[in-house]
Amino acid sequence: MRKDGETLLSNSFWSLLNQITRIGSLAIVLIALSRHFGPERFGALAFGLAFVRIFAVITAFGLERILVRHFVESTNKTNEILRSAFRLKLSLGVLSYTSLLAIVVALDPHDRLTITIVALAGVGLLFQAFDVFDYLFQAGNRFRLTFLGRTLPVLLSTGLKLGAIFLGAPLLVFAGLETVEAASIAAALFLIHRATHDHPQPTERIGNRGLLREGFPLLVGALAVMLYMRTDILLLGKFAGYQAAGIYSAAAQVTEACALFPMAFMPALFPLLVRWRKQGPLFYRQQFEKLFLGAVLTGFAIALCLTITAPLVIRWLYGAAYASAAGILAIHAWSALFIYLSIMQSGYDITEGLTWIAAWRTGAGAALNILLNLTFIPCHGAAGSALATVISQFCSSFLFNFVTSSTRPIFWMQLRAGLLLPLVRAMIKPQMREAPPDNRRPLPV
């Protein structure tokens, strides 16, 4: 247990450092872009990139944790899994890019700006195949290699984008730089793998059908999550204009940046979940109850702080042109609580074989989100879209767990965490252990 704790601490440090660099660099670039272009032009860029982000999930196909699990459980087949996964993800990248272009052109063939943004930024989907080397690093608890393979290219890309802003580059240049960043990460991961990994002779190939079958429900779930995060921008862009989409995107970016902590924690934690599960269901559920408690406490604190300081945060980050984003942030911030719960639950869903139920749950939540957006946007604009996100996240991450018997234990664990019962038990048990012995004399016979 002590070794597991040290491993988790080390991996979490590297993963958190990677996420801080990535999210911090992205936030700096987005803030600079929003100030440089203003709400309307920035909204146009966010609108085009939203399509690319959705299809990036399709390219990933939910294979990250599936492949990490296979690498952990089948160390003697590492190279076969690696080659098969690379071919599969490259094929998915090509298919996703061509489908993306076809759909964007079909939706509005006259919107040349969005089509060009998607065409330039979407090329980065092809480079996602190189992520398989990152998954191998994670399975081997070598998160420092993941840090090197992703952080240095991100810092390089950030420098290029800030330089382009300083030189007054046009909007489309920044769409192209998205692909430059993806290509740089791919090259770095590949070179680090070659420098640190043995290369035995080729062996038999592992079939892709099993990986697709395992990954498909995770794809549905991840796609639903991305729809949560991007459909509101797409619907606002279509029904309320690019300026409303830009205002909303500025507020949503603050909340998404706060999801940094659980997103960094979960990749480091997942290999340990596989081992913890082998120690028995009681121990395993106790560990998850503690994780949910941490998610509730952290998510609530962040949501409350953002609600109170929303006007100050928006004014400081984006300037007076985005002042109306403060009210949106005060609402949208509460989705952080349910995002934290959802990220922690994803590890349980995979290890317990509940991926299809997770896909149904998040898919239903995404459908609810779209329906609420269509209802609220005409009346309340961007603020209505933020409210739709919070309601749908509450249902998907918590309430829908009560529907099926397989996920009902998760519902009760989350409810106990929300009521702080694990914290109360942790405070009572030491007092019980330290209670003085009963020194009363026995009654005479």
What does this 3D model show about the protein?
With 445 residues, the protein is mainly α. The longest helix has 59 residues, at 2-60. Helix 6 packs antiparallel against helix 7, helix 8 (209-239) crosses helix 9 (242-258) and helix 11 (281-318) packs antiparallel against helix 13 (335-351). It is built from 16 helices and no strands. The protein has helices spanning 2-60, 64-73, 78-107, 112-121, 131-139, 143-166, 171-196, 209-239, 242-258, 260-277, 281-318, 325-332, 335-351, 355-397, 408-418, 421-433. The termini are far apart.
Topology:
Blueprint: H1 2-60, H2 64-73, H3 78-107, H4 112-121, H5 131-139, H6 143-166, H7 171-196, H8 209-239, H9 242-258, H10 260-277, H11 281-318, H12 325-332, H13 335-351, H14 355-397, H15 408-418, H16 421-433
Helix pairs in contact: 1-3, 1-4, 1-6, 1-8, 1-9, 1-10, 2-5, 2-10, 3-4, 3-5, 4-7, 5-7, 6-7, 8-9, 8-14, 9-11, 9-12, 9-14, 10-11, 10-13, 11-12, 11-13, 11-15, 12-14, 13-14
What does the radius of gyration come to?
Answer: 23 Å
| Overall average pLDDT | 81
**Proportion of helical residues:** over 70%
Poorly predicted ranges (pLDDT <50, ≥5 residues)? 439-445
How many helices? The count is 16
In terms of structural class, how would the helical and strand content be classed?
Answer: mainly alpha
Task: Please give the number of β-strands.
Answer: 0
Described by the principal axes of the CA atoms, the overall outline is globular
Question: In whole angstroms, how far apart are the ends?
Answer: 50 Å
Biggest β-sheet strands, sense, barrel:
none
**SSE pattern, N- to C-terminal:** HHHHHHHHHHHHHHHH
Estimate the strand proportion.
under 5%
